[in-house]
Design goal:
The complex is a heterodimer.
Chain A (H helix, E strand, L loop, with lengths): L6 H12 L3 H8 L3 H8 L7 H11 L3 H5 L3 H14 L14 H7 L1 H30 L1 H26 L5 H31 L10 H12 L13 H10 L6 H20 L2 H10 L4 H8 L3 H10 L6 E6 L4 E5 L17 H7 L5 E7 L5 E11 L11 E9 L10 E3 L28 E2 L2
Parallel strand pairs in A: 3-6
Antiparallel strand pairs in A: 1-2, 1-5, 3-4, 4-5, 6-7
Helix pairs in contact in A: 2-3, 6-7, 6-8, 7-8, 9-10, 11-13, 12-13, 15-16
Chain B lengths: L3 E5 L3 H13 L3 E5 L2 H11 L3 E5 L7 H10 L8 E5 L4 H10 L3 E4 L4 H12 L4
Parallel strand pairs in B: 1-2, 1-3, 3-4, 4-5
Classes of the chains: A alpha+beta, B alpha/beta.
Amino acid sequence: MPASPLTGSRIREHRLARGTRQAELAREVGISPAYLNLIEHNRRRIGGKLIVDIARALEVEPTQLTEGAEAALLAELGAAATRIAAPAEGPAPERDRAEDLAGRFPGWAGLIAAQARRIETLERLVETLSDRLAHDPHLAAALHEVLSAVTAIRSAASILTETRDIDPDWQARFLRNVGEESRRLSESAEGLVAWLDTGGDLAEAPLSPVDELAAFVARTGYHFAALERPGAGAAQIDAVLRGASGLSDPGAADLARAMLSRYRDDARRMPAAAFTASRAAAQDDPARLAAAFDVPLDAVLRRIASLSGEAAGLVVCDGAGSLTLRKAVDGFALPRFGSGCALWPLYHALARPAQPVTMVLEMPGREPRRFLCRAISRPVAAAGFDAPPVHEATMLIEPLEDPQARPGPVVSAGSSCRVCPREACPARREPSILGAQPGGGPAG
Amino acid sequence: MAKRIVIVEDEPNIVEAISFILSRDGWEVTTHANGETAAAAVRAARPDALLLDVMLPGRSGYEILRELRADPDLAALPVLMLTARGQKKDRALADELGATRFMTKPFSNAELLAALAEITADGA
């Protein structure tokens, strides 16, 4: 049983973890404390019977002392020392002591390795983003469109305002050109903003675990056939996660596991066939469905979203309003980061827990579209006298194809302030980068 | 005799506006929208100045300029390059290839006329 250079460090680690004194262990295995001290500091290589004896005394397998996971860790530490420049001030990493570090402080060594990996990931992301800004053909084409339209408008407008004796035919031509180019500018700017807001193809390089989860939900459409089967459990969740691409961040995988567990629970309590049949009987009323299946209202909203394909969107937010789950629906833009429009019933629901809120929202655009939005909020942690309540709100978003079918007030809302043209909106929290339109709030 | 200028630009509304102001300023204007055939059109026109856009269908303004500067007859032709990109490296490339002046979009009509007057003035 050949011992690795770090066997001594591992012996020390196990001994300290058991709370055994050095002298005590030395006596037990029949060696002097001084010799054990040398062994523990990796200054004496040991093997054979002594390792077996020490392992028995420490109640571990001998291989736990002779083999460690440190080979990979050492390689990572070496790579980190090579790749990351030495600090301008202070000593350079002691590369010859890497084994010692990994053996004596495996936690800290692991942290260094993890940070080096993280730095590498972030550097790649920065590189990707910089490269995109400089070379992205979509961005370049979009900016070219915008600048070309602005140039044509500026030049024609200048002719119209500065040329006193302009021929009426020319005047009409330039007025027409200004009109044409204004429309083009508006479309180009809108497309550019939408592209910037969604991040273009940034799904390939998500910026956070929540972002990775959103990309996963977008790829799957928030429907997981494997979890619809009766008896689906942890094994099926594992299988879905194994088959999922793009969940590279461990944090994202944890979020996805929690989301899938909740999905599995929803599917168990509201099996697809029975739920679909009941929807018609309940006239699609989530409250009646909740009563029929004896489940909370938010579970019904999630279930409708999971079984509606592209016909329904879903958002879930935490108590601070930050979106934690996003399933998009055509025409209802969802912000990629942070929170959405403060006028969404999602946030009304957050302010009045356990009371369902229904609202028809009109989203801005060249052809404004209306959506029936139903939201509910409920506590997600046990209430306590000494702890603040923790709530979560859920909102189902369904396109309202026939506005006449749902008479009543309509609220002019948006996606997020940054890309919302409703300049005079009372809920605005930051300026928009779009041109102005009438304010938000109740629509006419 | 009126000075002659060729405008190589593929945006019709920009071409129309620039042609209008240059004509009123006394220039005899020829326009061309295709990058691939632009160099030949310039050779045929023998203008006193060239207004050259960078992003053109078929061939970029930089390539056209490189070809024109390699022709001894056109090596000294005043060329005003127009581009929607105003980055340092674009400017540097235009300089390196022999552009007389570099102007980024959007520009004012007055700026354009002033720049053309400057690069085509005797002794410029």
